[in-house]
Amino acid sequence: MKYSASQRRISSFAVGRAGSKYGPPVAVIPTQNISCFSEHPGESMGLPDEKGVTKMKKFLSTTLAIIVSMLVLTGISTQAAEKSLTMATTTSTDNTGLLDYLMPHFTKETGIEIKWTATGTGKALKLGSKCDVDVLLVHAPGAEKKFIDQGFGKDRKEIMYNDFVIIGPKDDPAGVKGKSVARALDTIRDANAAFASRGDDSGTNKKEKILWKQTGKALPEKETWYIQTGQGMLATINVCEERKAYTMTDRGTYIKYQSQKGGDAPLVVLVEGDDILLNQYSVLTLNPGNCPNAKYDLAMAFSDWMAGKSAQTFIKNFRLLDKKLFIPNAK
Questions:
Q1: pLDDT computed for residue 6 by the predictor
Q2: What's the whole-number mean pLDDT along residues 11-19?
């Protein structure tokens, strides 16, 4: 069969294709004026003439350059995606500004980008169990160990701590200042004094429930004086201020609140110092057996960096109102 030159032209060339690993077409090169073979209609197909060869070489050269460029860009994009982590963490590490201060140093030193979701520890652990993130930074040791025992987590590394405190109005209407934690909570209950709880299954909320149980009485729940905010720590402190209530908070978030008030906050620390008020923060990696797509190697790099000399020094030096918010204690 014979073909004219116009019938034998290549109409276009697409770089990439739908469904391929390179994604959808990213460039389409029209080639209406490039003849593959002879310019003379009616000739049988055969070797291209000299003019056709020149055009074909130019076409192939241009096409090859575009393909190489696109593959290089695809490779760069893939590498960037591979060197990134997603983390679920507590509201206290976010509210205090610690992560905004710390994570740029992590990225600079490791080349790993990190994005985080700040939520209660209970929700963070659920995100981890569902493989929705790559790594966790949380503060509920009992729940963390259970998470690992259930096969959701693999490694747990202690990084830093602060402590929990009970705060309330300066005039301390229930008279709890200086009491033990158990006695202070009993006093608040007996006085029907307003108490704001996060009520969100966060690490702080878990600890609060433990402390109420230590009084030997039932956990408050629907009592009119017991306010469950369902919000993060800083938001709960603000509710507490509005309602002239008491609450339990980690010291770091209280210092952040205090700094927002210019150092003279309406709520003050009234109960502190009991051993049970220790607040330990740890990094948890996910079990690859449960989450095969989680970036375990990068999560371990994050865990090791947080426990290393550089990060521990940054944590030690992080202050507001010239007060330390967290104490590094990695081993």
A1: 38
A2: 40
Mean pLDDT computed over 18-35: 44
SS (H, E, C) the chain: CCCCHHHHCCCEEEECCCCCCCCCCCEEEECCCCCCCCCCCCCCCCCCCHHHHHHHHHHHHHHHHHHHHHHHHHHHHHHHHHCEEEEEECHHHHHCCHHHHHHHHHHHHHCCEEEEEECCHHHHHHHHHCCCCCEEEECCHHHHHHHHHCCCEEEEEEEEEEEEEEEEECCCCCCCCCCCHHHHHHHHHHCCCCEEECCCCCHHHHHHHHHHHCCCCCCCCCCCCEEECCCCHHHHHHHHHHHCCEEEEEHHHHHHHHHHCCCCCCEEEEECCCHHHEEEEEEEEECCCCCCCCCHHHHHHHHHHHHCHHHHHHHHHCEECCEECCEECCC
* 226-228 vs 195-197, strand pairing mode: parallel
Q: Write down the pLDDT at residue 15.
A: 40
Phi, psi values for residue 198, rounded to 5°: -65, -40
Q: Which pTM does this prediction carry?
A: 0.76
Buried b (16+ CB within 10 A) or exposed e, 159-189: bbbbbbbbbbbeeeebebeebebbebbbbbb
- Tell me the per-residue pLDDT of 150-164, one tens digit each, with 9 for 90 and over: 999 999 999 999 999
Task: Give the relative orientation of helices 203-213 and 121-129 as an angle to the nearest 10 degrees.
Answer: 120
Average pLDDT (234-252) is 98
